[in-house]
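Entry for the shared binder. Reason: the reviewer on the internal report wants the predicted structure included alongside the sequence.
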Amino acid sequence: MDVQVQRTLVMPPPAAPSAEVPLTVFDLAAPTYHVTVLFAFSPPNPTNQALLYALAATLPCFPLLTAARLDRGGPGVARPCHVTGEGGAGALVIEATVPSSALSDHLPLAPSPGLARLHPKVARGAARHVLMLQINRFACGGIVLASSAHHQAADGHSMTTFLHAWADAVRGLDVGRAPVPYGPTALVSRRPPRCEFEHHAAEFLPLSSSHAAAREDKPPAEADDRHVDHSEIANVLLHDTSEFVAELKRRAQDKYTTFETVSAHVWRKITIARRLSTGDGDACTSIRVAVNGRGRLAGTDTLPAEGFFGNVVLTATCGARAADLASGILADAAALVRAGIRAVDGRYFQSFVDFGALHGGEGDEELEPACADEAGVLSPDVEADSWLHLDLHRLDFGCGGRLVGFLPGKVPQDGVVVLMPSLRNGGGVDVFVALWKKHASELNAIAYTMD
């Protein structure tokens, strides 16, 4: 794909005094990388000038997206934070053209090496900009809009809110509202705060001498996995038709949601593709599921009534013996997923907010996310995320253009699964999977089998 960069610019932060905004306890538990999503729109589309004008009108409502990321570390040194106002980094925007092909030549949108040219290059942990955008205009007038946002500033729900606000502004709708609440001061703990769950064991790993020793005592096989050739991790897209999803739900006794059913099915198939069920009879596998706490905290004073921008996501985990999962029925796997999700309820989220109030002071112990997998290998586990209800598939920038595809950017981490509503005729669910190439080929061969 011939992608030609025409211009790179920075949308400046609002003209306000610089301010350091500490990360919330949810931000500290979030992954420390940018999340990239590609959106393809058929022509006709707004001009780049219209997109940029609307972006300039929208960003002041979302100060964290023009902030600078300030990484710190070391004993007794303040934690990472965001710098808003005039000390911010602004939002990086790249304008590019694809003059030699039409958008339709690349549809349906599916993972491929060429897609990397359509989004900003993000060096892991190195990009100062929280938000980076690339507008790619094809010869036919179609566009692919790439959004890369740092996960410690925003989760999927927050980024969806921003993207819809931007789209509203492009269509001429009023966005003249106050900035969306963000940062630790917008989260309200109980008085006094009380932790009802052990969050050090679940969300964070305290950097103690015993923890460091445990890392050093890992067996050689695990140590070798710290040097992963990310080119050997394939990204694939499975398409589950509406009929296929309905049959999966029937086999799961029609008791479980689409996400619970499909994620359980994919978890089983990945376990089989990895051949975990044919080796050590005691091998275990787990699935981690991102849970949005906004609904669970609804009706409390914890979150601002007018919304909250940032992270309000925790991870639910459930596990099973690989042999039992592979040989068992789909309903049992879906029941495990449901039980894990329901365990992370409103009481658990409130306890986590209180944990943040008790451990959020500068100079307090450093909190390392328990979800960190720097090696890029989750095996024998799976990490599943649902975009089924994010409303990303309803984005509308006007002018008559239609969203015809959306997709995560390259994911170099084995075991990641994302469920999305399919934009193909007939609907269904698209399942994005990142997996070792040798396992991805086996998954493709068995992904649509019912056993």
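Summary line for the report: The chain has two domains: 4-183, 233-389+411-446.
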